[in-house]
Amino acid sequence: MSRSGAVTFKGNPLTLAGEAVQVGKPAPDFKLAFYDGGLKEVTPADFKGKPTIISVVPSLDTPVCQVQTKRFNEELGKLGDKINAATVSVDLPFAMNRFCGAENIKNLKSLSDYKDRNFGKNWGMLIEELQLLARGTFVLDKDGTVVYAEQVKEVAEEPKYDASLAALQKLVG
Questions:
Q1: 111 forms bridges with which residues in the sheet?
Q2: 84-89 and 52-56: which strand pairing?
Q3: Which of 60, 65, 108, 165 is catalytic?
Q4: pTM above 0.90, yes or no
Q5: Which CATH number goes with the domain that contains 36?
Q6: Catalytic site residue 65?
Q7: What range does the domain containing 111 cover?
């Protein structure tokens, strides 16, 4: 299923593949790539046991995505190992690691959907025309249930940081 005009990029309507993630439902499945001396796979099972925040960006090579990633990195540092935190894009894992190393991003794990865009399709975040992910944030409880979901309508705009961080904070206590 596709949702035509679900998001815009600089005012131009774009189509999202899949269905939007629903609050109160289990997080959709995914297999994302992570580089840690070799390519490793990350699935929702890797996030069980702790509250999780997932920041989704089109590409870490763009200014708004960099701002979003840096802001979450800074804010999430206060929560330490009480949470799981990830930034997801279709950038190659190697490029993600270079950016995160250069910008001292240590509080978010960079996960890539480059292989088959399964995260984008399963989470309703794949922009069909660009084959990039839309911008958004998701918060999951320790059991993997979605407690907060934001799909940013205009891809060139930042997410509602305070709302996602407040949802995460409620789970941490």
A1: 88
A2: parallel
A3: 65
A4: yes
A5: 3.40.30.10
A6: yes
A7: 2-172
